[in-house]
UniProtKB/TrEMBL annotation:
Domain Sulfotransferase: 38-296
Protein name per its UniProtKB record: Sulfotransferase
Organism whose genome encodes this protein: Camellia sinensis var. sinensis
Record keyword Transferase present: yes
Matches recorded under Gene3D superfamilies: P-loop containing nucleotide triphosphate hydrolases (3.40.50.300)
Enzyme class of the recorded protein, top EC level: transferase
Length: 302
């Protein structure tokens, strides 16, 4: 089946999840052809949950010994170029990304749900970092993003229609709750291999979460690095305010002609309160209570 989001994005339902039309063709080749390496780090997120931030942080940690932070490639290159989406390698006959040319240890990204990951990822020793965000902020962030890309006004009628679809599970890579719960379960079953992160927690306590991420990557900060303030410097380099104002992220476009600035909007928790009606919030709260009941998982909304 197919559904059309109000901003014109076609979504196709395949094995329990909704995929945007431009990526549906990548799924099967990705599942069948991707060969994970034990040293791979795969960053997975539900779209608009802070993928860009996570990519920047993981890249900075992995390259601490390769470049001084004030000469980091992050200063001149968008994080999505440094840490590409795996779909780029399975996009038609002449993909943008040639995985064989990509140096190991590789950091790659995807939005694909856990149940749809290639068995090669699940069977290998590679590590997966998962990032999600409270559904109200995710919904608002995605809606802004999609409207900007399709030049559609972000108005109440649009919000109403797409919110209803979101609550019915129809959103890019949705249903939201299935995506989150699958990775939550995987992180509990294989804690050394799947790290589960939430945007709100990272915003609240970035230092602790950066340490957790570095340790999970097998690259913990040394006592010396900690005392020299390296953690704070990495966080500053990758901060919303710093990245958004860099020339590359402010004025350049990706190969599809989309400005990198669309990845940097507000970068806050709780912006949903500026757009959603009390009845929408109530509907979402009820839905989340029902879907996440007994899972031990909850979200912060402010
Ligand atoms: P908002 O639209 O709420 O501002 P993704 O990277 O998964 O596409 O998610 C985009 C969201 O993350 C946007 O949220 C964006 O502003 C925010 N974001 C981008 N870079 C960030 C950073 N360095 N720190 C915190 N949030 C960031």
């Amino acid at each position: 089946p197919m559904e059309k989001l109000p901003e014109g994005i076609d979504l196709y339902f395949y094995e329990g999840h909704w995929y945007p039309s431009m990526f549906i063709h990548c799924i099967i080749p990705f599942q069948q052809q991707f060969k994970a390496q034990d040293t791979d780090l795969i960053l997975v997120s539900f779209p608009k949950s802070g993928t860009t931030w996570l990519k920047a942080l993981a890249f900075a940690i992995a390259n601490l010994n390769n470049y001084p932070l004030n000469e980091s490639p992050l200063l001149a290159t968008n994080p999505h170029v440094l840490v590409p989406f795996l779909s780029d390698a399975f996009y038609g006959k002449n993909p943008f990304l040639k995985l064989e040319d990509f140096p190991s240890p590789r950091i790659l990204a995807t939005h694909v749900p856990h149940s749809a990951l290639p068995t090669s990822i699940k069977d290998s020793d590679c590590r997966v970092v998962y990032l999600c965000r409270n559904p109200l902020d995710q919904f608002i962030s995605f809606s802004h993003f999609a409207c900007k890309l399709s030049n559609r006004p972000f108005d109440p009628s649009f919000i109403e229609e797409s919110f209803d679809m979101f609550c019915r599970g129809v959103s890019a890579y949705g249903p939201f709750w299935d995506h989150v719960l699958e990775y939550w379960k995987a992180s509990r079953e294989r804690p050394g291999k799947v790290l589960f992160l939430k945007y709100e927690d990272m915003k609240e306590d970035p230092i602790s979460h950066l340490k957790v991420l570095a340790k999970f990557m097998g690259l913990p900060f040394s006592v010396e690095e900690e005392s020299q303030g390296v953690i704070e410097e990495v966080l500053k380099l990758c901060s919303f305010d710093n990245l958004k104002d860099l020339e590359v992220n402010k004025n350049e476009k990706n190969r599809m002609g989309h400005p990198y600035s669309v990845f940097f909007r507000k970068g806050e928790v709780g912006d949903w309160a500026n757009y959603l009606t009390p009845s929408m919030v109530e509907r979402m709260n009820k839905l989340m209570e029902e879907k996440f009941a007994g899972s031990g998982l909850d979200f912060k909304f402010s």
